[in-house]
Amino acid sequence: MGLKLVSKFESDCKRTDLIVVYLANLINVIMVFLFVARISALSQVEGVLGIVAVIMGFCLGYIAFINRRNKRDKWETYLLIPIFLFFIVELVLDYILDFDFRSTALVGPYVLFYYVGLWGLIGYAFRFDKKWGFLTLVTYFLNMSLSVLQHFV
What we know:
The structure is a single chain. The protein is an all-alpha fold and 153 residues long. The protein has one domain. Helix content is 79%, strand content 0%. It is built from six helices and no strands. Helix 2 packs antiparallel against helix 4, helix 4 runs antiparallel to helix 5 and helix 5 runs antiparallel to helix 6. It starts with 7 loop residues before the first helix and ends with a helix.
């Protein structure tokens, strides 16, 4: 009959992976809107969207912990760590210290850290499902395009 029994653990893992992929794409889309708000000089909107993205990044950190605790493949943990660490740095520099680091030499490593985190999410999405991986790649390129565009407008 082709009836496939899936364990609860496998089902939970698939659900967790889908949440990660949703969060990856939501982060990319939110960042697009954040960059539009920055271009439009809507600093309050930018701040709120930034906090929402940080919260989602912390959710990804929690999922990395859960994946590790459940002894999932190491990549299901490792691919989430850079974006989680990036959002910790973001929270400290932008929201706790309120430090204008974007006009300092720190901006280079900060931006690199940001993209490494996003690349980890793309890798996670492709490990989950190729279609989701390509969708995540599309939202990443939208995010990246607005990130670059904000410097020219």
